[in-house]
Amino acid sequence: MPEYLSPGTYVEELPADVVPIEGVGTSTAGFAGLTERGPTAATLVTSWPEFERWYGGVFDPERYLLPISVQGFFANGGLRAYIARVTFSVDVAELRFGEGGPRVRAVGPGDWGKRIAVRVQRATLNPNAFRLQVLYFTVKPGEPIDEAKAAGATVIEDFDELVTDPTKSQFAPSLVNTGSQIITLDWPKTPTAALEPFDDFRFLGISGEPENWPTADHFIGKADANKGATGLAALAAVDDIALLAVPDAVNPAMQAIRGKVVGAMIEQCEKLKNRFAILDVERGKRGFDGKAAKPYLFPRSDYAAIYYPHVRTLNPMTGQPVLVPPSGFVAGLYAFNDTTRGVHKAPANYELRGILTEDVRPGEGPLEFTVSKGQHDTLNPVGVNVIRDFRAAGRGVRVWGARTTWAHQEWMYVNVRRLFNFVEESVNRGSQWVVFEPNSEPTWARLRRTVDAFLEQVWRDGALMGDSKEQAYFIRCDRSTMSQADILGGRLYCLIGLAPVRPAEFVILRFSQKTIEAAG
C-alpha cells in the first residue's frame, strides 16, 4: 500500500485487471543458404529490391538456390524475411591504408570481396575532408579501372565530405558503416598512418583458403559471442521468425550433408516451438508412389511440412526456364495466408505466383512433373504436400496439401500445429508480468482472465471450434494444477486446452435422384 505522511489529495493509478495479450506475428520467414555476397549475420529484408542491395539478387540459380527462392517468397505475398548467408570462407577481403591506418573491409567473408574496388579523393567542397568511392563488380574487370569500367559496376557507392574527426557528424566510419551495403570502414582510435588520396581504384585483397562448398557445420552454424552467430544458429536467435527454409538443402552438392542440415532445422523448430520448417523433395523424383516416397522423406515431425515437385520459373540472368525447389514460394503463401486469413487457415488451395504460366515446350510447364490424381492418392497419406497443375480448369498451379510429416492425427495438419505455436508464444510473451508476482489466488485469477480475453478473440476470429467459448477452450490455473510443493517452490502452472479448426480436406457431395410423384 502507498504510504501517506501529510494531509492532502492523492492520485493512485491502479493496474488493469486484465493485461492485454498481443498475438505474435507468424509470417516472418528465416532463410539460410548461399548468396552472391553480403553479411553472414541474420539480416532483415522487407522486399526483393532490399535483398538485391544486400545480397546481390539472383546469381547462378542452378547452384545458388536461396536468392531465387527469396524472390519467390516476396512474389507470393511474403513481407519479412531474415537472411543468414552461409559461406565456406571465414576470411574477409580488405584494403588497409598504411600500417596502423584505417582499413576498408567487405561486409561479409568470401571471395566476392575481391571484386570490390575503392578510391579516395579530395572532397568536393571541404578541403579538409575526403571522398570515398566504392565499386562492386559481378565479374572482376582488368586493371586499371577507367571511367567506362567504373560505370559498368554492379554497385556504385559514393561518400563525399567525410572527415576524420570523431566528434563531427560527417565522421567517416559513422556515415560509411550505416550507409554502405558492401563495405565497412574500420578506424583506429589513434591512426598511425594518414589517409592519403589516390586517383586509381584499388581492389580489396584476401588471404586464406579458397572458396569451397560449405559443410554441414557451416549451414548449422554456431553462436559466437565475438564474431556473431552464423547459419541456422543465427536464425535461432531471432524470436520473430515463424517459418524456416533452406532451399539449398536439396542442391545436388548437398547430398552427403542434407540429412544433418534438415535434422538441424527440425531440431531448432521443435526446441524453440515458435517456428515451422518448410522442406523440399530433391529434384528428379518422378512419379514415385507412397512406399517409394518414404526413403526421400525427412524426419517425421509435426513442426515440418514437405512439398513436391519443384517449380519452373525464369532465370532473370538468362531469360531461360530454371527449376527451383518450392519452399521459398510456399513460405510466401504461408505469409500471405496468415496476413489475409489467419494462421488457423490451412495454407493451401492458393495459386502459386512467380512461376511459368505456359509450357516452354511439350512436357515442360510450371512444374518439374505433373502429378496425377492416382499419384497424389499415394503421396498425401505419407505427408507429401503436392503442388498440382489445374490450368486446364482455369485455376492455375496450386498448393494442394496441408499436412505435416507427422502421421498421427492430432498433429497431422500444418494449420493446427502453427495455431498452437501462435497461441503458446503469444501467451508466453503476454504473461511475463506474472514473474515474481505473489503465487496466490488473486494472481491466478488475474492470469485466467487475461488468457481468457485473448482466447475469446482467437475463437471469435474463427480459429477454434464450438458454438460458445466454453466449447472452444478451457483454462485452469488453481489448486487443481498446482500442489502445495509447487507453490512453495515458486512454480505456477496454467493448463490451457484448445479445440482447433481442422481443414475440410475431403469434401464429399452426395447426390440422389428425386422422383416426381404423379399427381393424384
Concise overview:
With 520 residues, this protein is of the alpha/beta class.
Protein model, in words:
Belongs to the myoviridae tail sheath protein family. The chain is of the alpha/beta class and 520 residues long. Among the domains are: 29-87 and 216-340 and 348-401, Rossmann fold; 94-203, Immunoglobulin-like (Sandwich), CATH 2.60.40. Helices cover 25% and strands 17% of the residues. The chain has 14 helices and 19 strands. The chain has helices at 48-55, 65-75, 147-151, 172-179, 216-220, 231-236, 258-272, 290-293, 327-340, 373-379, 414-430, 441-460, 469-472, 484-488; strands spanning 29-33, 43-45, 81-85, 94-96, 103-106, 116-122, 130-136, 155-162, 183-186, 198-203, 243-245, 276-280, 304-308, 311-314, 321-324, 384-389, 397-399, 473-476, 495-498. The chain has an eight-stranded mixed beta sheet, sandwiched between helices. It has a four-stranded antiparallel beta sheet with strand order 8-7-6-10, with helices on one face. Helix 2 packs parallel to helix 9 (327-340). The chain is flat and about 95 Å long. The N and C termini lie far apart (87 Å).
| Average pLDDT over all residues | 90
Low-confidence stretches: none
Report the CATH architecture of one domain: 3-Layer(aba) Sandwich
**Number of E strands:** 19
What are the key terms here?
520 residues; four-stranded antiparallel sheet; Phage_sheath_subtilisin; Phage tail sheath family protein; Tail_sheath_C; 19 strands; Tail_sheath_structural; Immunoglobulin-like; Rossmann fold; alpha/beta; single chain; eight-stranded mixed sheet
